[in-house]
Amino acid sequence: MGLVLGGLGTRLELSYERLDELQLAVTTVLDTLAADGEVTVDAAFDERELVIRIGPCEAPAATSVVAGHVLEQLADASRVATDDDRDWVELTFARAGVR
């Protein structure tokens, strides 16, 4: 997972510190949600930002992860997104200089 996230972060010109924050944020969510079963990690990016979606998961688990203060310090934005009645944790990281 680290190599994939590092590659995506490099494309957005994230600093080493931001790459570490990206990896720590995703690991934090995975450690919490994967305890309940299998989860999927999706990534999408454009010239402005990288959005990582992790799920699907139960609403209480997603909400508790996003409500944690750790993600507020690591990601530019975190939220619970609903897709086909399934909840996903969504983390957003802005391109260097866009934050």
Strand order of the largest sheet: 1-2-4-3
* Outline type: globular
What is the straight-line distance between the termini?
Answer: 24 Å
Question: What is the share of helical residues?
Answer: 40-55%
Number of domains: 1
Mean pLDDT across residues: 85
Label the CATH architecture.
2-Layer Sandwich
Polypeptide structure, described:
By secondary structure, this protein is of the alpha+beta class. The protein has a single domain, classed as Histidine kinase-like ATPase, C-terminal domain (Heat Shock Protein 90, 2-Layer Sandwich). The protein has 4 helices and 4 strands, in the order H-H-E-E-H-H-E-E. Strands 1-2-4-3 form a 4-stranded antiparallel β-sheet, with helices on one face. Strand 3 (77-83) and strand 4 (86-94) form a beta hairpin. Helix 1 (2-11) crosses helix 2. The longest helix is centred in the first third of the chain and has 18 residues, at 16-33. The mean pLDDT is 85.
Quick structural gist:
By secondary structure, the protein is α+β, with helices and mostly antiparallel strands. Helices cover 43% and strands 31% of the residues.
Task: Provide keyphrases for this structure.
31% strand, 99 residues, 4 strands, Heat Shock Protein 90, 4 helices, alpha+beta
Task: Set down the secondary structure blueprint.
Elements: H1 2-11, H2 16-33, E1 40-45, E2 49-57, H3 59-67, H4 69-74, E3 77-83, E4 86-94
Antiparallel strand pairs: 1-2, 2-4, 3-4
